[in-house]
Amino acid sequence: MVWIEGVEGAHPVRVMLGITDGTRTEVVSGGLNEGDFAIVDESGGGPKGPGGPGGPPGGMRMRMF
């Protein structure tokens, strides 16, 4: 299950994963579409504000598929 950022907020999408090298993981099937923004991490209760180096505001990282 991955979370996708949509117009109305984040929602879960079921996926089937394939092989991984520990850094990258193959998505074999599921509800991901090209252009979807998947939430791949969450901030752990730290201070709110800029996401730090290389990240979006609020500390939440997203990956485009």
How would you concisely characterize the structure shown here?
The protein has strands at residues 2-6, 9-13, 15-20, 25-30, 37-39, 62-64. The protein is an all-beta fold and 65 residues long. The strands form 2 sheets. A 4-stranded antiparallel β-sheet has the order 2-1-5-6, with no helix packed on it.
Give a verbal description of the structure.
The chain is mostly beta strands. It has one domain (2-64). 0% of the residues lie in helices and 43% in strands. It contains no helices and 6 strands. The strands form 2 sheets. It has a 4-stranded antiparallel sheet with strand order 2-1-5-6, with no helix packed on it. A hairpin with a 2-residue loop joins β1 and β2. It is globular. The mean pLDDT is 78. Residues 43-52 have a biased composition (Gly residues). Residues 39-65 are annotated as: Disordered.
Spatial order of strands in the largest sheet? 2-1-5-6
Termini separation (Å)?
Answer: 15 Å
Task: State the total count of DSSP E strands.
Answer: 6
- Rg, nearest Å: 13 Å
Class by SSE composition: mainly beta
The average pLDDT score comes to: 78
Count, helices: 0
Strand content: 35-45%
Number of domains: 1
How would you sum up the global shape?
Answer: globular
Residue windows where pLDDT falls under 50 for at least 5 positions: none
Helix content range: under 10%
Q: Give a quick account of the main beta sheet: strands, pairing sense, barrel closure.
A: 4 strands, antiparallel
